C-alpha cells in the first residue's frame, strides 16, 4: 500500500465520526502488520467502545512484537470487561505461548464471565496441554458458557485423558454443549469417542447431528 493511502487511513482514524474510524480500521486488513499496528494504536483509547474493541481484535491479527505486551496490559488492567475479554480473545488469535500465564490468571482472577470465557477459548487456541487443569475447572464450574468453552478447548489441546470428563455432557439439556461436544470428540480417535459420536449423530437437534457426522467423517467413521 502506498504512503498516500496509509496517510489517508491515518487521517480517517482521526475523524470525529466514529463510523469513519471503524471503516479505517477495517481497511487495515490489507495492510502489512508493521504499518498497520502503529495506526491501530492511535485508537486503542478511543472514546467509542466498538472502535476500541475492533482495534484490540486487530492487534490479534496483525502480529508484531508490540502486540503481545499491549494485549496483556489491556487484559490485566483495562476497566472495561468487554475490552478485557477482547484482549483475551486477541491473545488466542496471536497464538503466542507467552500469553499462557496471563490467560490462566484472567480465568481464575477476573470476576466477569465473559473474560473468563474468552480466556478459556484462547487457552484452547494455544494448544498447550498445560491448560488442562484450568479447562477442567471451567468444565466443573456449573456455568454453561464456560463449559462450552472448556469442552471445545479440551479437544483443541487433545487432552485424551479428559474424554471421560467431557462425555458426561452427552445428554446435556443445552444443545450448544452437545454440539461443542460433537465437535470436540472429532479430535479423539477412541472407541468411547466414536460411540458417543454415533449417539450424538441421532440427536434431536440438526446442528448437533451435523457436528457429529463431520467428526465421524474426520475420524474415518460413519454414523
From TrEMBL:
One Gene Ontology cellular component: phycobilisome
UniProt key word Secreted: no
Keywords linked to the UniProt accession: Antenna complex, Lyase, Phycobilisome
Entry GO MF terms: lyase activity; oxidoreductase activity
InterPro entries linked to this entry: ARM-like (IPR011989), ARM-type_fold (IPR016024), PBS_lyase_HEAT (IPR004155)
Highest taxon above the source species: Bacteria
Protein name: PBS lyase HEAT domain protein repeat-containing protein
